Every structure is written in structure tokens, then in C-alpha cells.
What we know:
alpha+beta; 6-stranded antiparallel sheet; elongated; disordered N terminus; DUF2993 domain-containing protein
Amino acid sequence: MRALRILTIIAVILGGLFVAADRLAVHFAEGEVADRLKTQEGLTTTPSVDIKGFPFLTQVAGGELDDVEVGMKDYDADTGTSGGTIRIDDLNAAMKGVAFSGDYSSATATTAAGTATIAYDQLLKAAGSQEAKLPLGVTAKVVGLSDGGNGKIKVDIEVSALEKPVSVLSTVSVVDGDTVRVHADSIPSFGNITLADSDFRSIADFDQKIEGLPGGIALDKVEAGANGVEIAVKGSGVKLAG
Length: 242
């Protein structure tokens, strides 16, 4: 009985040491991947990296991690124009089947899925840049975007001949995996001013291209939220580093 107790104590101690070593190793790996991501993507803040699964060391021995969650704040994505960027407030992705090199200099996920949030003031950059000249010297432009309820965006349009902006509800969608499209559901009343459909759409409808997401992640779906548009992202063969 005494020998059994001794063996049990030794097993518990060794098990504790293994868990401690495993947690130290995963913490080191998370830091390495986070630092490389920060450098690779030119981030101002260090992203969060959470390697799931236990034990970590057996995953390392196999050369592939089951599940890695990555989070980035204030990520500047390209807009397809010279030097143009749009800020993504939060970009979070769950990476599955992450194969990596021994020094973590390269890491590629089989698949990735997550979310991104873009504030309305950022999306307004695209809409506010297109001021239209209408008949009789009237001009119009989009001056505000906000939550319209039921998954719609409320678009406020300022018309020079009117005292107050006119609002319209618009549908938001993803086009070609890299573009957020805002399309007005109908033409509102502009008082005595009659607008042709093409004139109105030149003001209210717009596209915002979003390129250069980390590792080749693409836009999937989008819906209007309380503080901005919430985008589902996905990808395959996504590079975390290297």
C-alpha cells in the first residue's frame, strides 16, 4: 500500500509538471505568433492569439494546431484606391488545422471563419465623396449613415434646395468577396424636386472595397448593426505568419 501511495504521489507530481510545462510552451507560442502577426500586418497594437486544445505539446509534435483564435483591433484595410484605407474596429477569426514551422516563422490555417466590424463613420468615407449635381443647379450628397433597424442602414442625404436632410433605408450586401455594397430600397420624396432613378442612385448607392485582410481572408456576409456593419469573413489556406 505504501508503494502504491508513493507511485500515486509521483504520478500526480509528474502530471502537474507536465501541465505546467505545457502551459508555458503554449504561452510562448502564442507570444511568438502574435509578434510575427503584428510585424507582418504592420499593426500598431499586438493582436490576441489563443491556442486552444490540450495538451499543446502533443499538437506541436504533430506539426499542426487544432484551433487558434486571433483578434485584432483597429486594423487598416486597403480600399483599392491609392493610399486609401478603412479602419476595422474588431477583426476576429477562428483558424482550424494550423500547420506551422518549428520556429513559428510560418503558420497556415486550413480554414478560417470570423467577424469584422466597421463603424458607420468609416463607411461614410465612400458615400460622402460622391456629391451629385442635379437639374436646376441642385446638389446632393450623403451626410450620415446609421442603424435603420431590421438589418437596414439609414442613409441621410443632404439636398442643397432643402432645409433638412432626407432619409432612406438601404440594404447592405457583400459583392465579389471584397466589396460592401449599399443599395437604397426606394426613392424618398424630395419635396418639389423630382429625381430620376439614375440621379438618385448616383447619390445614395455606393460600394466600399475592402482588400488586404490578413492571410487572404475574404468577406462573406454583412448586416447592419447598432454601431456599424458587422461582416462575416472566411478563408482557406490562410497565413497567420510567413
